[in-house]
Amino acid sequence: MSPGLLAGDAMYQSNKGMINNYLSNDKKYRPEVTAALMGNIDVETGGSFDYLQEQSGGGPGKGLFQLEGSKKESYNNYLNDNGFEDSPRAQLDYMHETIYGDLQDEIGRGNAAKLRKIFETGNVEEVTKAFEEIWERPGIPHSDRRLASAKSFINES
Question: Would you say domain 11-156 falls under CATH 3.40.50.2000?
Answer without folding.
Answer: no
